Amino acid sequence: MSSIHFPIYSLIILLAAAVAIPIMRKNFDGFMKTFIIAALVGAWLFSLGSLINVFNHGPHVYNFGSWTETIGVQLMIDEFSAIMAFVILTIAGLIVVYSIRDMEHEIPLQQFGSYYILVYILLFCMVGITYTNDLFNMYVFMEILSLTSCGIISIKRKKENFLASFRYLMLNTIGSLSVLLGIALLYMVTGHLNMGEVGKVIAEVWQSYPINILVSLGFMITGLSIKAALFPLHIWLPDAHSTAPTPSSALLSGLVVKVYIFCAAKILFRMIGQDIVIALDVPTYITYFAALSMIMGSIFAIGQKDIKRLLAYSSVAQIGYIFLGLGLATAQGFSAALFHIISHALMKTGLFLSAGAIIYNKGKRDIRELDGIGYEMPITMGVFTISVLGMIGIPGINGFMSKIYLSFAVLAADKPFFLFVILASSFLNAIYYLPIVIAAFLKESKERKNIMVLDAIPKSMIFPMVVIGVSCVIMGLFPQLVMNAIEQVAPTFLTLN
Amino acid sequence: MSILKSIIEHINYVASAILFVIGLYTVLTHSNLLKKVIGINIIETSIFLFFVSVGYVTGGRAPIVEASGNHVYVNPLPSALILTGIVVAVSITAYALSLIIKLYEAYGTLDMDEIMEARSGQTNE
Amino acid sequence: MYQYKTSEVKVTSDGILFNSTIIITLLAFILGLLGIIGYSTSFLEESSVIATFAREIVNFQSILLWIIGLPLLAAALSLYIDSKWSRGKNLVTIIGTCITYLIIVGLYPQVLEGDVHYELAKVLGTGLNFQLNIISYFLLVMTGILWLMTVIYASVYMQQEDNQKKFNFWLNVTFSSILGTILANDFFTMFLFFEMMTISSYFLVVHKTSKESISAGNVYIFMGIGGGLCVLLAMILTKVYTGVTGFMPAAYELSQLSGEKYIIAVLFLIGFGMKAGMLPFHIWLPKTYVVTVTPVNVISSGVMIKIGAYGLVRVFSTLFTPSIDAVQGYQQSLWYISRNIGAVMIWLGIITMLVGVFMALQQGNIKKMLAYHSISQMGYIIMGIGVATYLGYKGAMGFVGSFYHIFNHTLFKSLLFMVAGVVYLRTKEIDMYKLGGLWRKMPFTAALCLIAALGITGMPLFNGFASKSILHHAIDEAYVYGHYSFKYAEVIFTIASAGTVCSFIKLFGFVFLKKPNEIQKDIKGDHLLMCFAMSGLALLIIIIGIAPNFILNNFLIPAAQGLNFDAEFIERYINNMDFFHINELMKALKVYLLGGVLFIIGVKYDLFHIKLPTWLNIEKTLFRPFYRGIESLHNGVLNKYDLSLVKYDVVIYAYMLCMVLYVLLQHTSL
């Protein structure tokens, strides 16, 4: 088994699982559960293998069917894609394990199969976008991704879900079409669809066809900003992420949104190139919108009463952080952004999973009703508290380290204004997260006395939460484990032209 | 005169831009859900038009290999890509239409404004 | 009037194991103190058995980590034991604190030889750095002493509250985090333990979980986190602009910056000042002190607000001073940064002093009065640190005074709070206007209160006299060597001290001396164990009062010599200071007379119930508009727009598209 093909094996396993589910038996029993988890574990192992491979042997490209890059589709397996695919599959694995029991109260049992088909195609597309080096391939994956992510929202047959899903679909489609228009314009100029080739040609012909390239860049950035929920274009996010079933919210908020940021990073830095992008002042505008995102996302979150809507707005704010790191266009900023992608994925998943566990157990979504719930569900609220402390920026949890790295990157790029924005946003985070934790642990609930018992939720739901909580703390105390790997990514990414 | 000439030379780009704007305008101004879907279809059509027309080579023939020597062929790649694009567009339209059916069953109206009013009346913000 | 628990006080009789543990602990405490005294006066030979034994034990490489880790272990262990044996958790806490205290005491020989360093690499990215020099050692000893007394006190006091398991756990965690903050050598290490301290003390503050506790706790934790973020911002700015990551002299690098150094200084001042109760960020103190249980009051005013002052000292005495080889004398130009900041700090300290005393005079609730006195005394300390910063090279007097006052204030304020707790335990009443004549029933407690009151007001032969004299000298020097406006500062200093005297005459008179009310006819007397704990502190007050030079020579002067102060100045003015000189005694007498006069005037014209105009209430003018701003922002504006904005999604896309294309196309000559 040659290790070059490991990424392909992950992709194939995911797709095959998605296709095999409807063929298998109708009812969702133990065999199906084992099969689903086994498929995901298999894909995860292959991504781990490719990660080890990349760190031992260095990056390489993989041409599909041995067609060269001018004709065929190419995958670029470098440190960036290997690390990100591994992270995506790990977190998705935890969410899938959680969802096997959690979906019982959201959708009827006959539809579990359909749900997992959608989830597996979603994972297939995400891993595909991370690996791919071809523009149109990326576009196709993006489209399938938008369809399946709308699918996992509307699989719960309630009217808010349909509305949220419809709006998400419309905006996503407009975004994808903008990206397609951008691809078309670039194809017009360069005649290639492979990112590396396009990058090379643009570096040469930049002065001759400036209008085409600029218009294409404008369309693509706007389209991707809709999908990645940068501030004014984030409007679909609260509805979509709050009405969806919990594992879907966790997948969408933690992973799907980030994948579009990968696309934006690849387009900006691999294709157009760091020098041209900086000459156009694009990063500056991205940082302004990112700062706006950070503040407005938190301000919108302060007044929310539904816990999942609050978490969705908080996602908008955190995505602002990532765009800030991206918009600095330096290696340090890019590493900080990547670190925050990983740590936010962990923290937000932890938050959504604990919120989901509370909804599963008590059916309560309103934060005003959560008094004293820390005694009834201590492990759940423990994970929630760890993630909240990370969001606020208490040392020891990975959120603090990502803020520190981002602050250093901001100051190294000589823009101290954003430092105040980062810390103001942390304080705003404290304003709306702390009351939940305080109410959960300190207030008296009206229904029962505050005696601590173990959570009454299934073990397959507790296990992912505990893993996420522990890894947040480990990543917070020993961030070098991750940062050393990430720092190898940034230089190659930003000079890969 | 030269403006008219350049418009005619680049008629495909102009047409695609006009279609894009028409489509976007439809999505923006009409509050009926079906019309929004139609608007998105118009946008998609404009982009497909643009992309396919990019591949045109002046004086080229259809890209089918014949026995008799080399000729200038039109670029086949955009057509192939757009086939994929059309498939995607169709699936999105199908999904959107099924969502509209469900929305109509749930809210009783196809008008976005009325749905939003019904929704903001019922949420507990 | 806050509702306190009115059920029967269930102070059970304790078992033999428990009582004997407490007695052994107290003996260990006294032995530890004797050990320090003996070693420093060379009574205990350097090579004697006990000294070498102590050296062997503490010559352990990672001893600093053990100091921090032991209370955490005790916390975990107490949780575990509580399920087996209910009294066990108190025992574990007491033993854990006692062992930590003994280790701290045993480190004395090593600290005298030189600094102790320890580094825990790889944690938190850059590793954790700990160090132990005389300054931190002094605070460690103070914390250890206080915590030991508090733990013994709390084991009895908390029997009337519920949920002792949580309390013990968080008490231990707070102890560990305070030790970590003191021992930290690096910015981020200190920040880690600082935040840990905020969070764990928050749980102590809201121990009662009543509605008032939670709203006071909200103020506490939001101000705590806000202060922490200011400190974090200042640390990040310092690291990036000067490359300094620890508490090292950096005035040269700082002088290269233009406005940023003042931003850094202001941020540090706000951040640590919030913790120390400096005006105008002091509002959490009175709110919090009223709703917490007494042991939390003791440790909070005894140790935690001192951490704020400690942070101020470490930042302003090291970061803003030039390094040793660059110092040529008082006129060194690099001191100017220090001088500007010092002036601000002196005035802030003076205002804090005055406002604290003034508000304290208006209170009837004993705890609230003591809280305002804490603010006022912290004003003294901040003023001292301000003088040290302002005078720079010659600032040793201010530094020594403030540190001495930190130690003394811990002792007498803790004793006062403990007395208030005992009074509450027996009478269920915390309002001093409703109490009276308790000296008959609780004579020992009354005597302890008298000792503490004399200490805080500065009676000669009690410890407050020494530190207030030094601080008085410090503000005099600021006037002599600095700006003439500090003459007024000195006048306010005297007035504040007189106000303190007046307030404590009021306290002692109303609570213990007045004619008793009807209700307090049948209360029990002193509680023996708690009196043991309190008498330890009283003993120290008297000992230090009788021999004030002991601490000066053995702790404070070496500490001042470790920093960048003029050695000759220290030698001439501070070494072997004569405290019982007639000038000092006259100053104290003046203060007492003035205080007595104030009290008589106050009683006669009923000045103790003044209602201030509402615009002076800092909370209303400064913070309430801030709250209301945020609330109205999201209640009125945003919620209205939240849903209606959803309609405009594609419109926003169209606008963004046009804007982006327009901006980008500027770059070509279109």
From TrEMBL, chain A:
Q: Where is the NADH:quinone oxidoreductase/Mrp antiporter transmembrane domain?
A: 133-427
- Provide the alphabetized UniProt keywords: Cell membrane, Membrane, Transmembrane, Transmembrane helix
Q: Which InterPro entries match?
A: CPA3_Na-H_Antiporter_D, ND/Mrp_TM, Proton_antipo_N
As for membrane topology, the entry says: Multi-pass membrane protein
The record's subcellular locations are: Cell membrane; Membrane
Database matches in Pfam families: Proton_antipo_M, Proton_antipo_N
Record keyword Membrane present: yes
Query: Where is each NADH-Ubiquinone oxidoreductase (complex I) chain 5 N-terminal domain found?
Result: 71-112
* Regions crossing the membrane: 6-23, 35-55, 80-100, 112-132, 138-156, 168-189, 209-237, 249-273, 285-303, 310-331, 337-361, 373-397, 417-442, 462-482
GO cellular component labels? plasma membrane
- Per the similarity annotation, which family is this? Belongs to the CPA3 antiporters (TC 2.A.63) subunit A family.
Matching PANTHER family, A to Z? Answer: NA(+)_H(+) ANTIPORTER SUBUNIT D1, NADH DEHYDROGENASE
> What's this protein's name?
Multisubunit sodium/proton antiporter, MrpD subunit
Its ancestry begins with: Bacteria, Bacillati, Bacillota, Clostridia, Peptostreptococcales
From TrEMBL, chain B:
Q: What is its main location?
A: membrane
Q: How does it sit in the membrane?
A: Multi-pass membrane protein
Q: Does the keyword Calcium apply?
A: no
Which positions, given as ranges, span the membrane? 12-28, 40-59, 79-101
Q: Which UniProt keywords apply?
A: Membrane, Transmembrane, Transmembrane helix
A Pfam family reported for this protein in Swiss-Prot or TrEMBL = Oxidored_q2
List where in the cell it is found: Membrane
Q: Which GO terms describe its cellular component?
A: membrane
- Family from the record: Belongs to the CPA3 antiporters (TC 2.A.63) subunit C family.
Protein name listed in UniProt: Multisubunit sodium/proton antiporter, MrpC subunit
TrEMBL record, chain C:
Q: Which GO terms describe its molecular function?
A: lyase activity; NADH dehydrogenase (ubiquinone) activity; oxidoreductase activity
In which domain of life is the source organism classified? Bacteria
Q: How does it sit in the membrane?
A: Multi-pass membrane protein
Which parts of the chain span the membrane according to its record? 16-37, 57-79, 91-112, 132-155, 167-184, 190-207, 219-242, 262-284, 296-316, 336-358, 370-391, 403-424, 444-462, 491-513, 525-547, 589-607, 645-665
The alphabetized UniProt keywords are:
Cell membrane, Lyase, Membrane, Oxidoreductase, Transmembrane, Transmembrane helix
The answer to whether UniProt assigns keyword Manganese to this entry is no
Q: Where is coiled-coil annotated?
A: none
| GO CC annotations on file | plasma membrane
Where in the cell?
Answer: Cell membrane; Membrane
Span of domain NADH:quinone oxidoreductase/Mrp antiporter transmembrane: 184-473
UniProt cross-references to Pfam families, sorted A to Z: Proton_antipo_M (PF00361)
**What biological process terms from GO does the record include?**
ATP synthesis coupled electron transport
**Family annotation (PANTHER family):** HYDROGENASE-4 COMPONENT F, NADH-UBIQUINONE_PLASTOQUINONE
What protein does this entry describe?
Answer: Formate hydrogenlyase subunit 3/Multisubunit Na+/H+ antiporter, MnhD subunit
